[in-house]
Amino acid sequence: MNSNQIPFWSFPECGGNIGNTGLNNINSFFKDNTILSLSREICQNSIDAKQKNCSEPVKLDFHLFYLTKETFPGFDYFSKVIDLEIKYAKEHFKNNKSTIKFYNSAKELLNQERIPCLRISDYNTTGLVKENFDNLVKNVGISDKDENSGGSFGLGKFATYACSKLNTIFYSSYDIDNQKASQGVSRLSTFENENGKKTYGLGFYGSINETRLNDLLNLDEDCHRTTPGTDIFILGFNASPNWKNEIISAIIRDFMVSIFENKLNVRVEDIVLTKDTIIDVFNALKAENTNLFNVLTPFYFSLLTENEYPVSIYYYSMFDENDIQLKLSINNAPKNRVAIIKSTGMKIFERDRLPTIPSYSGILLLKGARVNDYFQKLENPAHNFWSTDRIEDEAEKSDAHSRMNELFKFIREKITDISEKFIPPSIDAEGVGEFLPDEEFDGNNNNITEDLSDNISTELDVKETNTKRFSKENDFNPSNDNSNLQIPGNLDANGEYDDIEFTDHNENSHIKSNTHHATPDDDGNVLINTNNFVAISPQKIRCFNKNNEYIFIFSVSENYQKISISIKISGEQSNEKAKIISAFDNNNLSLSFQDDTIYVENINSSTQYKIRFSLESINNYSLEVKINGYK
User: Fold this and answer.
1) Strands, E, within 540-608: which ranges?
2) In a designed cystine with 518, which of 136, 507, 513, 587 is the match (CB 3.0 to 4.6 A)?
3) What is the pTM of this model?
C-alpha cells in the first residue's frame, strides 16, 4: 500500500455560512422496524446484484463479531470526533435531547472492551463496480438499477445506519473484474473540528480526498473473501437478544418466494435458510415465539408447495403475454389476503380489500420485466406499498390508477371463479350466493368496485359518557350548519317518524319513545345513550360502489332493536372518519345518520339488509365498518 493509501478518518469542512446538519435526517425512514428494514434492503440489493450467468442462488451470511479499540479502524480519532460532537450538541442542539443522548451512548459504547458489529456478506454476486460503489458509499437518492431490480430510490443503504449505535458502516467489495475496494462512512451531525472549523458531520475512512482504498477490509477475522461479492460491516450493531430469530423471520416473511424458487439462501449464524429447510426453520422458530410470523405464512407455504390445499393458477397479460401469475387456494386462512410479489421474489404488500368469501389466500407474482418496472414507480422508499400520488404527471397518474384497478379487478374476478369451483363442506351451498357478487353488479359495469376491508372491528369504541343529542329543529334544514344531524328513527310511508312524536317546541315539549329509551332535556333535545350498545360481528357482509354511491349488504345472527353502522375510510397507514351525506334502506326510505354513523332499527336475524349511502367526497374509497347494537 503506497503513501496515498494509508487509511485515516476525514470529516470535510463546510464552506461559507452553512447551517447545521442534524442527525438521522434520512435513515429515520427505517427507524420504525430496523431489523425488518435491514433484512428487506440487504436481500433485495444482493438479489439485484446476482451474477448473470451464475446458476447458483445468491447466498447471504449474517455474523455477529466484536472489535476492540485496537482493531476498530482509526479508533483514536473517531473517539475524539464523538467528544467534539458531544460538546457541539450541548451548545447548538441543547433542545434536541435525542441527539445528545445518541452521542453519550456512543461514547459509552466506545469505552467498552468489545464493540458489537454485524457482518453481512453476499456471494454469487457481482460485487460493487466503481459507479455502484460510489452510489452506495457517497451519493444520496441515486440509483442506476435496471428495470428487473427490486429497488430504485438509492435510499435503502440507510437501513444499515439505522441499525448502528454509531451511525457508522464499512464497505468492502471484490467485483467480477477482480477490482477490490473498501471504505468506511460515518453519518453524524455538524460539529467543529480541532481547528474550530465547522464540518458537515459526514466522515470517510479511506485515502486522501475521501477516496476509497484499493484493497479489501477484513474487519471480521472469520471472513476472508476470495470470490466476488460485498461485505458490509455495521459498527456498534444495535442487537436485541433475539436478533437472529428476528432477521430470519423477516426474511421468511418477505422473501419466501425467493427462497422457494432457489434464488436466495441465507445463513444467520447457525441457522441456514434454503428451499429445503425453510419450513423446518419456520416451525422451529414459531414453536419458540408465535408472534414472530404473519399468521398467513403457512398458507403462503401451501400455495408455493401445492401439497396441502388445491391450488388454482391463473395468468394475466398486461404488458407482455402472461406477465402476471396468480395462485389462489380455498383453505382455512384466518384472513383473506393476496400477497403482491416482485419478480425478485420480494413481497411488497398484502392486498386486503377483496371479496369476503370464506377462507382463501393468494400470491400474485409480477413476472414480466415491464410490469415490474411499471409498478416499481408506485413504490414508497421502504418498498412496502403502492401509491399513485408518487407520480406527478396527471395523465400518467390516471393511467397508473387504471392499471392498479385493472390488476385488482383481475384478482377479484379469479377469487369469484375459485369460489364457484371449490366450496368448503362447512358452507351451505344454498347460501353461497350471499358471499359472491350480486348479479346486478356483475358483468362489464366498470363503475362497480368492491372495497370493504374484511377487518371487522369487534370492540365498541365509545367514551364513558357517550350521549348523542338530536333536535327536531336541526333536521332537514338547508340553512342550518348542522343539517346533517338526523333524528334516530325511520320515516314511514307517510314521511313521518314511526316511533317518535314531536310537539311544537314553543309549547311544552313532549316526546314519546317506543324503543329508544329516549328522554328529552330541558330544551326538547332527544338524548340517545349508546352505552347499552354492544359490538356485533355480522354473519355476512359486502360493500360495493356504484355511480358514487355505496351499497352495503349485511345480515346478523340475532335480533336487535337498533344498530349503529360506523364507516371509516381505510388508508394504507391509518383510518379516518367518513362524512355521510345520505343513507337509504332497501325500500328507498331515508335512514338516520350523523357524521360517520348510520342508525337502523328493528333488525331481524332472518333478513339480509341492503343499505345505500353516499359520502361527502365522490372518490372511490376502501371502507372499514364497525357495527354495534342493542336488543
Assistant:
1) 540-546, 549-555, 560-570, 575-577, 580-584, 592-594, 597-603
2) 513
3) 0.67
User: Residue 23: pLDDT above 60?
Assistant: yes
Highest mean pLDDT out of 5-14, 192-201, 219-228, 266-275: 266-275
**Each residue's pLDDT tens digit, 327-371:** 999 988 888 999 999 999 999 999 987 887 768 999 999 999 999
What DSSP element (H or E) covers 304? helix 297-305
Q: Which residues of 548-579 are buried (b: 16+ CB within 10 A; e: fewer)?
A: eebbbbbbbeeebebbbbbbbbbeeeebeebe
CA distance 45 to 41: 6
Task: Say yes or no to pLDDT of 12 above 50.
Answer: yes
Contact yes or no for 238/27 (Cβ under 8 A):
no
What is the per-residue pLDDT for 122? 97
Residue type (1 letter), 152:
S
Distance, CA of 211 to CA of 539 (rounded, Å) = 66
Helix %, strand %, coil % of the chain (to 5): 25, 30, 45
- N-term to C-term CA, the chain: 85
Question: Is the C-alpha dihedral spanning 95, 101, 102, 107 positive or negative?
Answer: positive
CA 207 to CA 195: how far, in whole Å? 21
Task: Report the alpha-carbon distance of residue 615 to residue 581 in Å, rounded.
Answer: 5
Place of cell 392498479: 404
| 166: nearest Cα among 216, 108, 222 | 108
How big is the chain by its Cα radius of gyration, in Å?
A: 30
Q: Give yes or no for residue 462 having a pLDDT over 50.
A: no
Nearest to 182 by CA among 232, 147, 140: 232
